[in-house]
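#data-curation
PF: Archiving a pair of folding outputs for the training set. Convention for this channel: one message per protein, sequence first, C-alpha cells after, nothing in between. First:
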Amino acid sequence: TCVGTFITDGNISIGTIVGSAIFNILAVSACCGFFARSSLKLDACLLSRDCMLYALSIVLLIAVIYDHLIMWYEAVLMVFGYIIYLISK
C-alpha cells in the first residue's frame, strides 16, 4: 500500500484497502466460526448494523476519493463516523 501510494502513480492503494477490508470481513468471520468450541449466538440487529455501516463506509470512501483529493473536513467526517460507530449500541 505504501509503495502504491507514495512511489507509483497507480490506484493500487485503493484496491488494497477495499480488498483487505473484504478479506477481513469474510476470512476473520469464517475463522471465528470455524475455531469456536461451541455454537455462536449472533444478534441479528448488531450483524445487520455492522453490514449497513460497512457498506456506507465504502460508499463514503468512494465519494471522498472521487476527485483524487482528500480535504481535511472529509477526513474529519470519516473519523467522526468511526467514533459514532464505536459508541453506538
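PF: Second:
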Amino acid sequence: MNGNTSSELYPVSHYGTTTGKLLKSKKLKIFVAEATTGGLISASLLALPGASRFFIGSCILYSKKGIQQFLPQDVIERSNVMDVTSNYKNKENYISSKKNFVKSVSEYLRELHDCDYCLCESGTSGPEFYIPGVTSGFTAIGIAGRDKTYEEVLHTGVTNRECNMYQFLERSLEILNKVIIEEHGEL
C-alpha cells in the first residue's frame, strides 16, 4: 500500500486494473458489497473495458436503513450488525462485529448471485470515531469464495477520510488478487 494522501491519488481505474485482468483471464465473476469505500471498489472495476465479463453487481451497505433494504432479516441476525449495544461497547466488540458482518454478508451475497467471489468491507474512515480504542482508519475485509472465506482487518492510523477510503480500496483489491492467484494461478 502506498499510503497516498488525497493530493496523490491515482485515477480510480488504476486500482482495479490487475484485479480486472485476473477476473477476466480466469473467467471469474464477482459481486461487491461496500461500506466505507463508498463505491470505490466497484468504480475501480467498472472503469475497466470489458467489466461486464466479470462484474455482477454491487451495493453500498452504509446505514442501518440501507442494510435493512439490501439484506434479508436472517442475514442481518446472523451478522449481529444491529446489536449496537454490544457492538459499540468497546474496541474488541466493534472489531469482532465488523469481521462477523463482512463474513456473513460476503458469503450470503456470493451464494445469492452464484458468483465466484464476493468482496465485502466495512469499518470507519474518519476523521473521528467514538468507541474507545478504535481509531479512524479501520476496516474489516471479507472475501467469500466458493469454498472458503478470507478475512482481514486493516488499521491505517490515518484520520483523513478520503485517504482511508482509497487505502481500504487498495488493500481490498490486493487481498482479492492474492486469493485469485492462490486459487487460480498467475495471469
